[in-house]
Amino acid sequence: MKILIVDDERMICEWLQFCIGQNPECQLTGCAHNGEQALALFQENEPDVVFTDIKMPVMGGLELLKRIKEISPETVVVLLTAFAEFDLAREAIRQGGDDYLLKTEMNNQSFKEVLERLKKRVTKQEVSRGGAETESTGRQHSIIGDILREGRTLGEEDVKKLKACNIRWRDEGLFAVAVWKKEVLEEFILPENPEVHHVVGFEYDRLTYVIVGNLERDRTELQKIQLLHEYGTAIVQKNRCMAGISTVTGSLAHVADAIIEAACSLSRGYYMEKEKVWPAEMAGSEIRSLVKRWESGYRKTRRELYEVSGQEFYQTMEAVLDHAKQEGVFPVCMFAAFCCDAMEMAYMRFAGEDAKLMHHMLLEEKRAVSESVSYAESCKKVTEFIRNALAYQEMDERNLSKGVAAAVDYVRHHYSEPISLESVSREVHLNTEYLSRIFKEETGCTYSTFLSETRLQKAAYLLSHTPERVQKIAESVGYPNVSYFSTTFKKRYGVNPYEYRRGEEKDAGNHGNV
């Protein structure tokens, strides 16, 4: 398997080269530090897999992804990203990216596992090339993916592109069936049915695989519905899986509606956890409208989680999980991404700087939730992780010793001043080393973490509720250097102060709630 690395951080490149070099079945074909260099190396060496950073000079990862998929749609592109760039990573997946890795989660063992999965995928692609009717070429994947991500009605040019790639869907009896992608990767059996034609399969998102085709001509609408249900049932029985099916449409222009209907129907199976055929209950246009509302609601809830106490954090997450279960149709990838964000927030806010065990748990649980196709499993992992994180941090001030309680109170009243642990120690009449130790033991976090959290929470409130300039706010919460304040704020909230304020203003009139 040939691999190309693209990242403007040389240490990341060197580390990836080291890991790849330990795997004899992998060949490093080149290492580039921006998208322009990478594109030249890609065209020269034709790698099977490209690991690329998102933010780079000259040409960024999103543009590089687009150019690579135009040249070779079957090439696997994995985005390397930081937690703060989750939105960009999700955008990359929508634009045809195959997967993403968090830089903070990468270690030798986990990266070795990633390489193993990619080798299986590349091998499967090589074996499957040949053009059978039930298989999509890489070009078909790319075109269909573009159609899905835009969620639009197809025009004449779209239809011409499809036909040029040997996709023969016609304006009659169009349907879509969605299954979990992991089922397809594990010897999936596509049933033969003489009344089902022009079948094409492709990866819809990180978890879902969609099959699209035509039903036999000259059938009544009721017969088409029955035929599609029988076809979906055959898929479920042969593969012991669940499947979501669309309504039947007579217009190729509306195939994107059928696809999103099937994916949404499969989501119901995720929440209900029954291996059966799940029929469509909503039209594609209605689903797209709901997705926009859900995305807005999740953004709002994310911001709320940055502000609330530990117990409120847990209660908010319980409400989100219960609501998702009741609705039963939230897109699974979006729901899983939100759960992973919440666990990351819980770790950063409540686990403490030195909670190595919690960090290890975070990596494992986020991967499990991202790959899970079971609501109950994901829900259990999320709630248990947050409970564990809160166990490190949950502060009952009634149980604090007199000295620590005095230190906490002093910080909350003087956070805008340049107070150090030494100065606080003098104020509460305790030895500095002793205060440092018992502060961590009793509050669950270090003094510096508590001070930083207090300042940043106040800054976030001022950004949301006052028109004060960012520099003025930074100074008022104890950061005379606005550049350092911006860096620290972004590390904590995922966006810089200016972006945070714009997001708050945008959501100010939004009534969509999760």
Automatic annotation (TrEMBL):
The molecular function GO annotations come to: DNA-binding transcription factor activity; sequence-specific DNA binding
Q: What does this protein do?
A: May play the central regulatory role in sporulation. It may be an element of the effector pathway responsible for the activation of sporulation genes in response to nutritional stress. Spo0A may act in concert with spo0H (a sigma factor) to control the expression of some genes that are critical to the sporulation process.
Cited InterPro entries: CheY-like_superfamily (IPR011006), Homeodomain-like_sf (IPR009057), HTH_AraC (IPR018060), HTH_AraC-typ_CS (IPR018062), Sig_transdc_resp-reg_receiver (IPR001789), Tscrpt_reg_AraC-type_HTH (IPR020449)
Record-level GO BP terms: phosphorelay signal transduction system
Q: Which protein, by its recorded name, is this?
A: Stage 0 sporulation protein A homolog
Question: Has keyword Metal-binding?
Answer: no
What are the residue boundaries of the Response regulatory domain, all occurrences included?
2-118
Q: List the Pfam families.
A: HTH_18 (PF12833), Response_reg (PF00072)
| UniProt organism field | Hungatella effluvii
SMART domains in UniProt: HTH_ARAC, REC
